């Protein structure tokens, strides 16, 4: 391997031991990417330093924050919320603008929002306006004009939400698959999965093409399943691990490999990039979806979160990988002077 943190010792390889079982194949398939990758890697010294920093700052299992904020999310505690969350995460991707361009943003409750919060607030605002986003039949034929209205910007000059056509497709797919397979209710999918978080992720990836986040790295299938996993985690948090969120095996989910979490990990030097890749990211150049560089960044993100989780556990702080992910994502909302995130136009994150 060409990077300075190659797996030259058995101890280094032992750090990457796989759980048994590994039903989602996220850790096993991304581990193979890290074994041979040349563009992105994990700095174990920086990782341990961040783990120690978190513990010294008072992080515990009880203080780890959930990214779920009620003011931007519709939640009436019923099956309607379950369908709404499925739609939320079917459309939860790609909010960034080209270099030098204005970001898509919305105005909600006298606040201008962008990124994920703008998406969540847009869908909540739509429900408040009487648009039945929990109705599978309605979603199955939802019009482009309605989607444009839902995601209307804060000003007349605000650019449209990125990948608009793909969002229309995904919204319709939610309705169509719910009608065809689950009698219009995603609660039936939860029941079919026997309230097992892992099984529910697998079901999402099987039945909804837009959730099938599996790429190929030199002909090797790599499973990320970002939005499928985050959908299940959102159900868990929205219902506070009760009722429709009373899901077993939530600890078997991995982090959600997107563009914000690796940006934060790079800030802490936990993830490092080869000079050429670093320059491309800093210049905000587009990385093609599925290219080796992009997949190595995502694979390093998955394992950095997993290794942080293990490091914290060795020091007595037991968190899930999704809680580690949330700590990093929330940090990214507040850290100053972050270098650019990698830019890939994709529906998967």
Q: Could you characterize what this model shows?
A:
The protein has 349 residues and is mostly helical. The chain has one domain. The chain is built from 15 helices and six strands. The protein has helices at 10-14, 26-36, 44-56, 79-90, 115-128, 136-140, 144-150, 164-182, 186-192, 197-207, 226-238, 260-267, 275-282, 292-314, 321-332; strands at 40-42, 105-108, 111-114, 214-217, 220-223, 271-273. The strands form three sheets. Strands 1-6 form a two-stranded antiparallel ribbon. The chain has a two-stranded antiparallel ribbon with strand order 2-3. A hairpin with a 2-residue loop joins strand 2 and strand 3. Helix 4 runs antiparallel to helix 11, helix 10 (197-207) crosses helix 11 (226-238) and helix 14 (292-314) crosses helix 15. It is globular, with a radius of gyration of 20 Å. It starts with 9 loop residues before the first helix and ends in a 17-residue tail after the last helix. The relative contact order is 0.17. The mean pLDDT is 94.
Summarize the structure.
The chain has 349 residues and is mostly helical. It has helices at 10-14, 26-36, 44-56, 79-90, 115-128, 136-140, 144-150, 164-182, 186-192, 197-207, 226-238, 260-267, 275-282, 292-314, 321-332; strands at 40-42, 105-108, 111-114, 214-217, 220-223, 271-273. It has 15 helices and 6 strands.
């Amino acid at each position: 391997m060409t990077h300075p943190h190659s797996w030259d010792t058995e101890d280094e390889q032992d750090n990457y031991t796989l759980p048994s079982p590994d039903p989602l194949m996220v850790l096993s398939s991304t581990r193979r990417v890290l074994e041979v990758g040349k563009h992105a890697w994990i700095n174990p010294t920086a990782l341990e330093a961040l783990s120690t920093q978190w513990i010294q700052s008072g992080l515990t299992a009880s203080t780890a924050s959930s990214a779920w904020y009620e003011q931007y999310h519709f939640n009436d505690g019923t099956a309607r919320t379950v369908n709404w969350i499925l739609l939320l995460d079917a459309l939860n991707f790609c909010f960034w603008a080209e270099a030098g361009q204005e970001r898509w943003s919305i105005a909600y409750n006298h606040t201008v929002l962008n990124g994920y919060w703008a998406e969540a607030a847009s869908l909540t605002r739509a429900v408040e306006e009487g648009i039945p986003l929990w109705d599978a039949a309605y979603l199955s034929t939802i019009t482009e004009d309605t989607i444009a209205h839902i995601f209307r910007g804060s000003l007349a000059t605000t650019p449209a939400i990125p990948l608009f056509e793909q969002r229309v497709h995904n919204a319709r797919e939610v309705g169509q698959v719910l009608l065809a397979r689950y009698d219009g209710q995603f609660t039936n999918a939860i029941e079919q999965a026997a309230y097992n978080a892992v099984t529910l992720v697998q079901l999402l990836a099987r039945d909804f093409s837009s959730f099938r986040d599996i790429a190929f790295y030199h002909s090797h299938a790599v499973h990320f399943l970002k939005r499928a996993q985050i959908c299940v985690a959102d159900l868990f948090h929205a219902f506070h691990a009760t009722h429709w969120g009373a899901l077993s095996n939530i600890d078997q989910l991995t982090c959600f490999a997107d563009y914000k979490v690796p940006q934060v990990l790079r800030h802490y030097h936990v993830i490092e990039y080869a000079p050429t890749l670093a320059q491309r990211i800093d210049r905000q150049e587009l990385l093609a979806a599925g290219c080796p560089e992009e997949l190595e960044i995502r694979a390093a993100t998955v394992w950095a979160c997993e290794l942080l989780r293990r490091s914290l556990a060795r020091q007595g702080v037991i968190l899930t990988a999704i809680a580690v992910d949330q700590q990093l994502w929330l940090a990214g909302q507040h850290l100053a002077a972050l270098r650019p995130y990698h830019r890939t136009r994709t529906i998967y994150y």
